[in-house]
Amino acid sequence: MTYDELIAQLAWTPRAEGAPAAKMPRAVVGGMGGSGLPAHAVRFLDNAVPVVGHRDYGLPEGASTDALYIAISYSGNTVETLSFAEAAHEKGFPLAVVASGGKLVDFARSISAPLIVVPGGVPPRDALFFLSRALLAHLGDSALQGALAQVSFDRAAAEAEGAALAESLAGALPVFYASRKNGFLAAMAKISFNETAKMPAFSNVFPELNHNEMQSFDTPAPEAVAALARFVLLRDTNDDPRIVQRMDVFTDVMRSRGRTVQEVSLGGGARAATLVRGWYVTYLAALALARSRNIDPDGVPLIEDFKRRL
Q1: Does residue 310 fall inside a structural domain?
Q2: How far apart are CA 173 and CA 276, in angstroms?
């Protein structure tokens, strides 16, 4: 994805088919993989938005009539999300749909459910902002849609940062850490490296990782794994000072043990800008690593083979 294509996603206007989605006190988003990310992106933008994600077949335990159920499948053919939509409809729960096509679009039209069709043609994880804007439209949140549409940043600086990150992580095991409030960006970086760069990668958040995961990198067994690890701290000037202190101490402790720790600055501006720029930098790094290894960044052949075998 180019910078211009990213900006076009941020400015894309969702158009709903049929009646508007029901206004409910909360929303449950059913979606898998990249299609499940918008629920988390919206909470990143505003943690007060009453949205939760469901990544499984059917409905979550305790599903009730006081929520809007939003089925999101970029392809429109994700079996878990289809079962979520069908179960919500069978229960008589308010349902809305987001997809680029496929069986889910056909189902939504057959039952006259509110439907937003997003542009197709990219991997679901790279359609994050199409899907997020569609979700916000179903929620009736014009303020957050407007915040995304207004995002811009220094393209050259972001591209240079992405290239430098890729160079530093070649042949490594990337481990992305952030504060809890920025944990979604650490998770997105992991996903980009898993699917785009085809590299194992991991993510976690402060302060929880200081109580468990951190200890695993202070042992000679298995040293081969620990030696490959490259810690990438996603730092935000708006992070809680106590989290900043933890990041500082973590850096000192790990470097004293011979581990590599580097940083990506998220700045400290508006949440929409932090989300978009942070996502773009790590996406560019994953893309560069895929290209350096002559790997198709878009394809996910192992996942597709797995699906065919089900």
Answers
A1: no
A2: 24
Cα–Cα distance between 246 and 301 in angstroms, integer?
39
Is 198 domain-assigned? yes
Q: Which domain holds residue 28?
A: 3-149
- Provide the strand spans (E) within 124-270: 173-179, 202-206, 229-235, 260-265
Q: Is the pTM higher than 0.90?
A: yes
Please name the helix (run of DSSP H) or strand (run of DSSP E) that holds residue 98, with its range, or none.
strand 95-99
Segment 247-253 long-range contacts (CB within 8 Å, at least 24 positions apart): 247/177, 247/206, 250/177, 250/206, 250/210, 250/214
Residue where a domain stops, chosen among 93, 127, 149: 149
pLDDT, tens digit (0-9, with 9 covering 90-100), for 97-155: 999 999 999 999 999 999 999 999 999 999 999 999 999 999 999 999 999 999 999 99
Q: How far apart are CA 283 and CA 288, in angstroms?
A: 9
User: Per-residue confidence at 269, pLDDT binned at 50, 70, 90?
Assistant: confident
For residue 116, give the H/E element and its range.
Answer: strand 115-117
DSSP-based three-state secondary structure for 203: strand
CATH number, domain containing residue 132: 3.40.50.10490
| Residue carrying the six token digits 């194992």 | 200
**What proportion of the chain, given as a percentage, has pLDDT over 90?**
94
Q: How many domains does the chain have?
A: 2
**Is the separation of the CB atoms in 32 and 82 below 8 Å?**
no
Within its chain, how far is the Cα of 226 from the centroid?
26
Domain co-membership, 183 together with 59: no
Q: Which residues pair with 263 in a beta bridge?
A: 233
